[in-house]
Amino acid sequence: MMREMTGAEMVMQALIDQGVEHMFGYPGGAVLPIYDAMFHQNQVKHILVRHEQGAVHMAEGYARSSGKVGVVLVTSGPGATNAVTGLTDALLDSIPLVCITGQVPTHLIGSDAFQECDTVGITRPCTKHNYLVRDINDLARVMHEAFYVAQNGRPGPVVVDIPKDVQFAKGMYVGPENIQHRTYQPRLKGDPEKIKTAVEMLAKAKRPILYTGGGVINSGPEASRVLREFARLSGYPVTSTLMGLGAFPASDKQWLGMLGMHGTYEANMAMHDCDVMVCIGARFDDRITGRLDAFSPDSKKIHIDIDPSSINKNVKVDLPIIGDVKHVLEDILTVWRGMKAEPDRRALAGWWGQIDKWRARKSLAFQPSSSIIKPQQAIKALYDQVKDKDVYITTEVGQHQMWAAQHFHFEEPNRWMTSGGLGTMGYGLPAAIGVQVAHPESLVIDIAGEASIQMCLQEMSTALQFDLPVKIFVLNNEYMGMVRQWQDLLHGGRYSHSYSESLPDFVKLAEAYGGVGIRCANPADLDGAIHEMINVNRPVLFDCLVDKTENVLPMIPSGKPHNEMIMPDHPEALDEAIDEEGKMLV
Amino acid sequence: MPPVIEPAERHTLSMLVDNEPGVLARIVGLFSGRGYNIDSLTVSEVSHASHLSRITVVTTGAPPIIEQIKSQLDRLVPVHRVVDLTVAGKSVERELALIKVRGKGELRQEALLIADSFRARTVDTTLESFVFEITGKPEKIDQFVSLLEPLGLVEVSRTGVAAIGRGAEGM
């Protein structure tokens, strides 16, 4: 399709042609022509946010829960700089986004014009790719390329910076069918020889483990299905990173729970003692590996990743397979069946016997109380009431996030949205709003802390304006709990500025926004209050007052290996857990 | 078990990139942002018709770091190809330098003799100065510069290394 139109019209046409149904944005001087072009159409719905950071997190929640590309539109200068946190978050968690930023007209670039900033310069290290479109004749191509780059290969955010004069200029629009990227052609299929070797290694394994990550989710629901099929066929245990929760069903007997710093004992011990590890769409992040030189010392490691730069970055692996998780797992299945491979059933039975012993340590146990709500109890109560519903969970960042990961259980991919890599407080509410936009009929809950929620709380107003009945479940312990926990660990319990002073009355605040506020402090009232929350068809801010002293356990202290976890039955070990070297780590 | 620290190696990486605004910033930013070294950097357009530039980077790092650098560069969208000339086979490396020397009498004589023995060309002459042009491997230029140091060295301008593989094959 070739047609003359203005740059602003091209932007809208490209969005329509890319199948975009929703975008998140905030107007300003340098994007007014695009907002005007938007006014003349009704195919793409625009969600007006209250802060540009919120727009990006909404697009992230939208993308991660739907598998589509999230779209953001912000103005120049502060509009772009406010988006930077969200873009970095999306880069670290591999979320496909296209963020369109307005720019001052080309003849003013470099003159320190009003609301000018070097957007492509600022966002270069926090995007997968970015473009400054100086010529109207490049605009349509760049828009389509941006969508291609955002979602192919390892997904990520792409910024398209469009000066205002280019938005007004006229040129020929080109449809997406005529665009092919010159260089960027990521490899999807794994090397057949390596896949064969992987199957041989897997079939010979005595103590295997499948260590899965966000790449399984990014590869699409089909990847989760193939993962399940391979797990069933082999009988091998499965663990996952924070980002990969839901790819494998938590109710399955082969599920070991999350691994890593606050993962389960059985998952971490199995990682430490395994003889063959398959890392599937994960990246050996420092939250996962613990002490690197003591990480899984006796295993052969197979690493499946679409991004070659993930290979051997932190941990040296024996067999890297570059490719998309779904394709590689499918090929592994085919070869496994073709070779009539059989797991070593005797060895496997012994391995499961060992794993069951680790499981019996019950590393997620906590002391329930009848006088005060334990945060873990609150998550469990929430889970019990919503587990059979069509539910999506987002989180902020901190203790509540870890408790949610430990005590809320996921059966399906794309149901769990959390800021893993960057650890962005303020992510959860806007992400929940984005999820609700993608899934208007579903129950969407942001599990939050009272500190994190205040970082993007203004988006309550967005939820009200667009009738998005998200539920914000705040575990209020009046601390930045994870900061406080680390001050306990490293700084002698000196709680320097980690106490949440002058908290607002969250119930009144919810009402002030036009939402519903609920407060609960008594364990006996918890179930009823949660029932009330999930049955209101409006945004709810639920202020759940919990134990202020609870720490997240189990824990691999920084600088320690997987087999030196602090367990909930010996929490006092936390005091001595971290040595001088470990203190330097985060 | 203490981590095995492998000794740093010097590698010459050659890459073909789209000649578009910001591509150099992208590559330099990758090196600084991830804490890699740049010992030398040269950039120039090599094909106007296909908008291609060639960037040559000399870097040092332990072998796993060199591998990381290559795969990080390779995944940049405007990067077409990355070749590690140090491992790809034999290659030629050349650098050009312009060197200004100021002096009179014997020192001046001596500078000219040294320039001559290095096959440097004299590209500017005044009664009290020379500018020499020299081409060669970086080590040769290092040596030339150090010999001129006591003879009134004023300033040095070096291009950085340009490199290409030997033999008939292209990158």
UniProtKB/TrEMBL annotation, chain B:
Q: What is this protein called?
A: Acetolactate synthase small subunit
Top-level EC class as recorded in UniProt = transferase
Q: Which reaction does it catalyse?
A: 2 pyruvate + H(+) = (2S)-2-acetolactate + CO2
Sum up the protein's function in the record's words. Answer: Catalyzes the conversion of 2 pyruvate molecules into acetolactate in the first common step of the biosynthetic pathway of the branched-amino acids such as leucine, isoleucine, and valine.
**Pfam families to which the protein is assigned, alphabetical:** ACT_AHAS_ss, ALS_ss_C
According to its UniProt entry, the protein's GO biological process terms are: isoleucine biosynthetic process; L-valine biosynthetic process
Listed GO CC annotations: cytosol
Recorded E.C. number(s)? 2.2.1.6
The ACT domain covers 12-87
Q: Describe the family membership recorded for this protein in Swiss-Prot or TrEMBL.
A: Belongs to the acetolactate synthase small subunit family.
| Species of origin | Ancylobacter rudongensis
Keyword tags = Amino-acid biosynthesis, Branched-chain amino acid biosynthesis, Transferase
Q: Known CDD domains for this protein?
A: ACT_AHAS
Record's keyword annotation contains Electron transport: no
Q: How does it assemble?
A: Dimer of large and small chains.
The pathway noted for it is:
Amino-acid biosynthesis; L-isoleucine biosynthesis; L-isoleucine from 2-oxobutanoate: step 1/4; Amino-acid biosynthesis; L-valine biosynthesis; L-valine from pyruvate: step 1/4
Q: What GO molecular function annotations does the UniProt record carry, in alphabetical order?
A: acetolactate synthase activity; acetolactate synthase regulator activity
